[in-house]
Amino acid sequence: MKEWLDEIRPLLVSVGGRILSALAALLIGALLIRVLMRLLEKGRLLNRASGEVKSFTLSFVRVGLTVLLIVSVIGILGVPMSSVVAVLASAGVAVGLALQGALSNLAGGIMLMIFKPFHVGDYVEASGASGTVKEITLFYSVFLTPDGKRVSVPNGSLMNANVTNYSSEKRRRVDVPFPCARTEDPERIRALLTGAMEGCGLVLTDPAPTVLQEPFGEESMNFTARCWCKNKDYWTVYYELTEAVGRAMTAAGIAQPTHRIEQ
Question: Which terminus of the chain has fewer Cβ atoms in its 10 Å neighbourhood, N or C?
Answer without folding.
Answer: C
